[in-house]
Design brief:
Length: about 525
Amino acid sequence: MRARRLDELTLAAPERVAVLIVDDREENVIALSETLSMPGYEIVGAHSGPEALRCLLARDFAVILLDVVMPGMDGFELATLLKKRERSRHTPIIFLTAAAPDHAKIYRGYAIGAVDYMAKPVDPDVVRAKVAVFADLYRKDQRLKRQAEALREAERRERDLAIAELRVAAERRYLNLAEAVPQIVWTAGPDGAITYTNRRWAEYAGPEEVRADGWHWLGALHPEDAERCESVWRGALDTGSECEFECRLRGREASYRWHLCRTVPEHDPQGRIVGYIGTFTDFDELRRALEARDELLAIAAHELRTPLTALKLRVQSLQRLVEADEPARRKVEGAARQCDRLERLLDDLLDVSRITLGQFELQLQDTDLSALVCEVVERTREEAAAAGVALTADVTPGVTGRWDRLRLEQLLTNLVCNAVKYGDSKPAQVVLTADGENANLSVRDNGIGISAADCSRIFERFERTAQSRDLDGLGLGLYIARQIVRAHRGSIQVESELGAGATFLVTLPRVAAVHGECVAGRLG
């Protein structure tokens, strides 16, 4: 019985993560180690900045407890070095000090990138609670990375087995292989009508339930997915391009499971399309796991809003108190900007969750886009001037349409701020024109530019260019911008070369939706 309880405790123990304690006093390291001595933590102690750097070269840590006052290299110097390293840049740092609270030091710590600042002697319960938060976030991040890698590996295997081999195999070998693979495999003629499905279709849908030949397969799609998937498929037929979409397929007993559909065209020696090969791959469990991850991100973002709101109120109070003290005012303004930055990051995470969970809605209203562009540009001028960017606008007056004003403001702010951030202190321009059907917006900078390889992926979640990795951000802004444009039935693209700046081109139909004042749906 006792052995069984020990096994249960072992199974319930959290994944071990490393915590680094940096303090020049041995008794402080021992005390903190004892405070955090519990399952799930591996405590590593360092008694100087150089020793801490050696520890960080050897491994990653979930959180660092860092003493401010140390001989030689103090805590601020060590933190500055850590934030310059790619590997430790995002490691949370909690500063510890035995001295009386010093606002200047506190502001300096937050400016460097600390997540918290605690005075000694520390409350053991508070230390354990704060470390537990960052340890749990670290564990979740590691699990997400492993899941993403597993997904990429599964996609590579699927592509090799379900498509590449089928395209080069002879007809008999192709048929045998198509019948053997676990995916639903099908072929279609040049007009898109299905001509063949392997036996996996009958096993999944039932031999008498759903016909797949011709265009009857559309009847197996979930009603919420049918129109979107048919549109994507017909668009691929019009352009003769590869196609990919996610959908729910009805199986036996009217149950639905998520499938990933991929198609590729087949060409004859003259390059003419003679048909298409496609697969449906069941990824229902993975989809539900990703939705659970997005829900977790949303919960985490909501939970972080409470302390952030309190922090912003404190900072605002400090701004009023130090209004006449110029040096202090600048420091408090710096803290306020960091709060605003954190708030924008949380907003981005919430938007990504809404998009993935199909809760991204537009509130359509008559909107003067010309006035909105001028407002955003004017609001960004101070930031542009501080970055040495001459920001100008060429706006056609009276460009109106039925759009979600707040979402377009978010889109414009993102594009204009990016032009300033990556503008390399060179001029940037916003141009708005219109025709009878569309509003056409371009935001151009003359900065660092984007490589051709990066242009194809910067609109994906958490993607950043190699040139932007030294700058702040999660790589969500352009992903959200694309979803906003898509929700308005518009288009967004980028034209760029390395070192030659970038131009983002947005087209927005002046009537974004036909039915109702609210548009919602699953995007991505």
